[in-house]
Amino acid sequence: MKIMINGESYETQKGDTILKVARRNNIYIPTLCHSDALPGLATCRFCIVEVIDGEECKVAASCISPANPGNREIEVITDSDKIKRMRKVIAMLLQARCPNNKEIEKFAEAFGVEKRKVNRFKLEKGEDCALCGLCVKACKAVGVGVLSLVNKGIYKKLDISDKSTQRCIGCGSCANVCPTNAIDIIDKDGKREIWGNKFKMVKCDCCGEYFATEEHVKYAYDKLGIEQPGKFYCSRCKREQAVQGMNHVLESI
């Protein structure tokens, strides 16, 4: 099937979202809360587009909207004046929540929002967090699920209490996907600190680099149901060993 985006026709695949088709064809749709490794969230709303489906025209989040709803071909407009105005308002609201965040500042500038002067002696706890929920999704995808968004409206926040994070394995997935760099993760001298927890890290037996926490390694092997090996290798060294092994096989043919 096909989809019409900004007046051009594009091929779609089963299960495609509007955003996926757009990115595959180098059509720019801004996102903040989206990660290709995780299901769409539709939290930030920056990815909104106009969707014309028959006689119906609506605004929808492209990260969760199917490219062919009900096997119908639709038309999408990604950058209409209406959409631009709505994205600007969203950027203004987000900037008001995170006034000192550099990543949010870049987003706001891109949508024509002037930088606001905020006079504060210090940041409020969690002020850099855009409440997008990506860290929550990543934590659940790992299988640990210690993070959650609680409350609603202006009281909505990320639950980072000691009780909620004491089961953290220090994998760092939450920090890796955070679009505003709001999650502090410190790796130093073979130790990692995140969410107020401290972890010992495992060293690669090949290159000597620390690459994961002991809890993360144990969790992974327990989940696989296999015993931990006598030696550990980081992903980079594993790839190099795999390439060397393949080269050795090819040379022997």
Describe it for me?
The chain is of the alpha+beta class. The chain folds into two domains: 2-79, Ubiquitin-like (UB roll) (Roll), CATH 3.10.20; 134-243, no CATH class. The chain contains eight helices and eleven strands. The strands form three sheets. Strands 2-1-5-3-4 form a five-stranded mixed β-sheet, covered by helices on one side. Helix 2 runs antiparallel to helix 3 (102-110). The termini are far apart. The model has no long low-confidence stretch (mean pLDDT 90).
Outline the fold blueprint.
Blueprint: E1 2-5, E2 8-11, H1 18-24, E3 48-53, E4 56-61, E5 75-77, H2 81-97, H3 102-110, H4 134-142, E6 148-150, E7 157-159, H5 162-165, H6 173-177, E8 185-188, E9 191-194, E10 197-203, E11 210-213, H7 214-224, H8 235-252
Parallel strand pairs: 1-5
Antiparallel strand pairs: 1-2, 3-4, 3-5, 6-7, 8-9, 9-10, 10-11
Helix pairs in contact: 2-3
Strand content: 15-25%
Low-confidence stretches: none
Widest beta sheet: strand line-up: 2-1-5-3-4
What is the molecular shape? Answer: globular
Oligomer: single chain
Domains, number: 2
Structural class: alpha+beta
Biggest sheet details:
5 strands, mixed
Q: What key attributes describe this structure?
A:
metal ion binding; Ubiquitin-like (UB roll); 253 residues; five-stranded mixed β-sheet; four-stranded antiparallel β-sheet; alpha+beta; 2Fe-2S_ferredoxin-type; iron-sulfur cluster binding
